[in-house]
Amino acid sequence: xxxxxxxxxxxxxxxxxxxxxxxxxxxxxxxxxxxxxxxxxxxxxxxxxxxxxxxxxxxxxxxxxxxxxxxxxxxxxxxxxxxxxxxxxxxxxxxxxxxxxxxxxxxxxxxxxxxxxxxxxxxxxxxxxxxxxxxxxxxxxxxxxxxxxxxxxxxxxxxxxxxxxxxxxxxxxxxxxxxxxxxxxxxxxxxxxxxxxxxxxxxxxxxxxxxxxxxxxxxxxxxxxxxxxxxxxxxxxxxxxx
Length: 242
Ligand code: UDP
Known about the structure:
Elements: E1 4-9, H1 11-14, H2 24-39, E2 43-48, H3 66-90, E3 95-99, E4 108-109, H4 112-120, E5 124-128, H5 138-148, E6 153-158, E7 163-164, E8 176-177, E9 179-181, H6 182-187, H7 195-204, E10 207-212, H8 218-223, E11 230-233
Parallel strand pairs: 1-2, 1-6, 2-5, 3-4, 3-5, 6-10, 9-11
Antiparallel strand pairs: 7-8, 10-11
Helix pairs in contact: 2-3, 5-7
Bound molecules: uridine-5'-diphosphate (UDP).
C-alpha cells in the first residue's frame, strides 16, 4: 500500500518572506515539491492554516467575540486551501479542496470518507476550514485529519529547523531534539504545536515530524522518510532510528 502522509502548512509559509497574503513564488515552490512527492507514489493530504490572512490572537485589539474571530480564521484557512489547490493544478497535479463548512463553491464539504475517496482517486486532498470549531488551531486539525484519513505520519512544515528546548534565536546554546517523546514535549511545555494537538497525537500514537520547509527538497525528503528536523513519537516507538 502506498504511504499516506498528512502535511500541515501554516498560512505564514504561503505568505512567503513577509508571511502575509499570498506569495506566488512560495506557492509554486511548495506545489513543485508536492509534485515530486506524488511522483514517488506517496499519497498526500494537506492541511493549511490561515495565519497569513487572519489569526484570532493577531486581532485581539478589535474586541470582537472569539467565536467570530475564529470563524474568520477558519475562512482564511479555506481561502488558502483553494489557493494551494489551484497552484497544484497549475503544475499539473490533480487536487481537491475540501473544508469543514465547505459549500461546493469555494471548497467541497469535508467528510473523512469523501476525503479518502478523493485521495484514492489520485488527488492531493487540500483541507481548509480548520476543525470547523472555534478555540482550535490548524495544528490540531492536522492531527485530527491525519487520524481520520489513516495517514502514517503528520509532517509539520515550519520556518524553523525543528524542536529546541528554547528559542535558538534568543539562546545560542538551545538544545535541538532530533527525537523527542510526546510526554517530554508536554512536560517541557515546548511551543512546537498547541497542547491539544500534542495530546491528540499522543493518545493515538501518531508520529509527528517537524521540519524546516526552506531546506532543499524538505517536503520530499521528509515524505521519503529521511530523518530531517525533529520527530515526536512515544517512548517505545523505535521508528525514529530508521
Ligand atoms: N481556527 C479555528 N479553529 C480551527 C482552526 C483554526 O478557530 O479548528 C482559527 C483561529 O482563529 C486561528 C486561525 O483560524 O487563529 C488560523 O489558524 P492557525 O492559527 O492554526 O493558522 P496557521 O498559524 O497555521 O497559519
